[in-house]
Structures are given as C-alpha cells and as structure tokens.
Amino acid sequence: MKFLATLLLFTLVVSARAQSPSTGVYAIKCGRLIDGISDLAQFGAYILIDGKTIKNVGLSSILPAGAEVIDLSNMTVLPGLIDCHTHILLQGDITSQDYDNQLLKESIPYRTIRGTVSARTALYNGFTTIRDVETEGAMYADVDIKKAINNGIVEGPRMFVSTRALDVTGAYPLLGYSWELRMPKGVQVVDGIDECRKAVREEVEFGADWIKVYADRSYYVAADGKIHSIPTFNYDELKAICDEAHKLRRNVAAHAVGREGIENALRAGVNTIEHGDGFDDELLALARKNGAYWCPTLFVTEYVAEGRAAEGRPIYKQMIGLQRAAFAKGTKAGLKIALGTDVGGFSWDINQAVELKRMVDAGMRPMQAIKASTTVAAELLGMKGKLGEIAPGAYADIVATEGDPTKDITVLEHVIFVMKDGKIYKNLPIRQ
After folding, report:
1. Element (H, E) at 263
2. What is the pLDDT of residues 187-243, one digit of tens each?
3. What are phi and psi of 420, to 5 degrees?
C-alpha cells in the first residue's frame, strides 16, 4: 500500500509539472526549429525562456546555469498557432435547424460553459491565440471567457474578441418564424448611421477588441461565373462603423462572401475580409492597396455544403471550387492571407488545423501556410514581434510536433507539446 501511495504521489507530481508548472527559466532543445520568420528551418537551436517571454534563441552557449532543459530534439518546434476566425460559443451549424436549436434551446450560461471547453480544445490543438469573431446571440459571453482565461480560472488561448456582430434588419437568423413571435437574433441588429455608431461604442464599452460586421447575404453565381450577393449595410452605414471603430482604436472584420459585399466592405475601410469567396483580380488589387487581410475559411464550406444543399442552398457546393480558385489568385497576387478556420461553424471535435491542408491544396507552399497561421496572423492582430514568432522579446508561445510540416502540413493536426506564456499545457510522450 505504501508503494502504491508513493507511486500515486509521483504520478500526480509529474502530471502537475507537465500541465501547469510554475513559470521559470527554461531552455527548449529543438530538433527542427521553424521560427515563423525565416523560410528556412534551423537545427539544434535552443530557445531560452524566462517567465512569459523568449529571451534568446541560439546554440547551447546562450544557456545560463540552472536553466531547466526541455528536450524536444526529436521534434519540429514552431510558434504557437493563431486562428483568426473562431466561434467558441457555437458548436456547428450545418443546417438552419442546428443553429436555431442552439439559440432557442441552450441558455447563454450553458453555451458559455460549452465555450470554455471549446477554448481549451483550441489551446490543446496548438492554437495559443484566437480571434473570436462574434458570439452568435450569446451577447458578451466571449469577454467573460477571455477574462476567465486571463485570470487562470479556465484553460484557453489568448483571446481577441468581437462580442456581438452587426447586421441589418431582416438579414440574419433566426428567420422564418411567425411575425407574432419576437425571436432572438444571432447578431446586434442596427439600421442607419446613428445606430451603427452607437453599436460600435456600446461593444467597445463592454469589451470588444474587434468589431464584426456582416456585409452581405443571399449568395448566388451569376452568368459571369462569379459569386455575387446582396449587400446588407449601405456604404454610408458601413463607413460610419469603420470610422467609429477606428476612432476608438478598434479594427473591423467583415463577413463578405460575394463580390458586392467584398467591394462595399473594402471601400468602407474594413481591415479584414472573412470568407471572401467572390474575390476577383480587381478586388484583390483593392485589398492590397488598402492593406486589408483575408481569412478565407476553406474547410467550413466543404463541411457544410452537403447539408445546406439538402435544405435548398446548392450554392455552397459551387462555392468550394470557386473559393479555391480565388484563393490561388490571392496567393499569387501576394495578398496578406491569415489562417481563419470558422471553427464553431464546424464541430469542435474536428481539429481546426485541417484548414492548413486546404490552404496548401489550394496553392500555398507549406511554409506560406505556416506563416499564415503565425507571423501573418500576428500582424493582423497588431501583435508583430510579440506573437507568431520565436525570437527574443516574443511571448513564450511554442508548440511542437513529430514530422516535418514543410513536407506534410497535416502533422500540425497532431501537436504534442503546447506552451503558452511560458507555461506548459500539453507534453505527450514521443512515439518510439
């Protein structure tokens, strides 16, 4: 019995060290190091970490006496991954009914509890930072989850949140119910310039880091073979949202699928285009001129296409090929493309890193896709030099995996080691 008790104590101590060690001075011994900056990997490097920050990267000569060595010499080490389009308060919505059920049958507290599980899932998948682009009717619960993570109450990635997305009357679910019923909405409904400005101010007051708008709806493929849409906000409304957000030092993410929505959003001054399936050469040039980023979200369209086609929206099947053709053009044109998965639109049971393979299949080199999920994503968030890279002064957000992601990007769906802010959250044994 004494032996068993000792063994149990040892197991608990080892587990505690692996999951939540106190921050200190660590030296990570890397096999292959992809730092998020260079196009070439380094071999045999050490990463020196002091507290939450990377202090140095180099050979073993950089190590001070007493540094605790973490041996990842058989692995590829990278910066913590960044997902710029998530919905931690949504649990998949292939069909309209899937979406309606969550808003009608799950309370906001219940959805928030589920959201903490989604956040932890993202972290353990290797995503140490996420930008969550709206709560889908759960009000400001994303701010609460972000606060709980920052205060150490629950585990999760660093979060940038946008609270309630903005849309116009009659354009967003829940739709189709009796006019006698006042149904909840997945967005904050605003009409007119004054309401738009007030909504931005209100969201910033309650903790929004970003402002999210829906720039279009009702997608269709016209005779020209392009994806078109009905714009939601008129130009003046959308411009007012962007102006107010920028005045308050917040950026704007625009859901824009069809050509009309993308153009209206870019001309109004949004900072990122989400989805962007209808991008063409003219709009890609406009986005580059404006310095806008693009989060394409390729996998989610593939995931929902069959279900949505079955309920009368066959456009989603057509979108798959068209969005990938647009993605290839955007990559070739040098547009700033950041990883955005739309996880929550698909089930959190699926590792969101599946998006990386879709990006590579659609025309990116593996190293470009890695940078889209590290350096470029960090720039989108205004965190260049702090996130998305392994370099002195950056936060100690580090992941590792077996294999070489520059040859097989899917190995990033199987991250073995996760550190955020100098704290180890995941450290699985290496397979022999």
Report:
1. helix 259-268
2. 999 999 999 999 999 999 999 999 999 999 999 999 999 999 999 999 999 999 999
3. -130, 130
